[in-house]
Design a protein that fits this description.
Blueprint: E1 2-6, H1 10-21, E2 25-30, H2 38-41, E3 45-47, H3 57-73, E4 81-82, E5 85-90, E6 112-119, E7 124-126, H4 129-142, E8 146-149, E9 164-166, E10 169-171
Parallel strand pairs: 1-2, 2-8
Antiparallel strand pairs: 3-7, 4-7, 5-6, 9-10
Length: 172
């Protein structure tokens, strides 16, 4: 199977990786840079149960599990870490400590309080988003996928696509 992926963000990189595991002939075209936009600049937060009660809950749970599996398989290459997540309120003008019911962590400033615990090390984690995206694409490339940087697809509307042109590189 031959697959062209337009975009070297987290979705394109992970699709390339998982298709490379199936020995697909994968080409990723990226005109700007791998993880150069939202995929490289997000918070990288992962939550097991923040979508509970919604149609996304099974996907969120599987995503959380899969990130842990990938982090183990790739030896933490992209900074995967389990962590406690907190909702914090801060005010330099008025004292807030009387409103806090939770003990603050050592690193929290004196003019801030923990409003609520959002997740524990069992339910929340974080990755470095650009490193994760690049790591997935690198792993795909190690398995035979190809990256065509500085490429911009020129796809034409037609009943069937027989090929595409990307910069000076053409595939049919």
């Amino acid at each position: 199977m031959r697959v062209l992926i337009c975009g070297g963000g987290v979705i394109g990189a992970t699709i390339a990786y998982f298709l490379s595991l199936k020995q697909a002939d994968v080409v990723v075209i990226e005109r700007t840079g791998v993880a150069c936009a939202a995929s490289g600049k997000s918070g990288g937060f992962l939550a097991l149960d923040w979508c509970e009660g919604s149609p996304l809950a099974p996907l969120a749970r599987r995503s959380f599990e899969l990130h842990a599996e990938l982090a183990s398989a790739f030896d933490g290459k992209w900074g995967y870490r389990r962590l406690e997540t907190l909702s914090v309120v801060a005010s330099a003008r008025r004292p807030l400590h009387a409103a806090s019911r939770l003990a603050p962590p050592e690193w929290l400033a004196r003019d801030a309080i923990v409003h609520q615990r959002l997740g524990t090390r069992a339910t929340t984690a974080q990755v470095h988003p650009a490193q994760f995206t690049r790591g997935m694409l690198d792993a795909a490339i190690e398995r035979g996928a190809r990256l065509r940087p500085d490429a911009s697809p020129d796809l034409r509307a037609a009943p069937t696509v027989a090929g595409f042109r990307a910069s000076s590189w053409t595939a049919t």
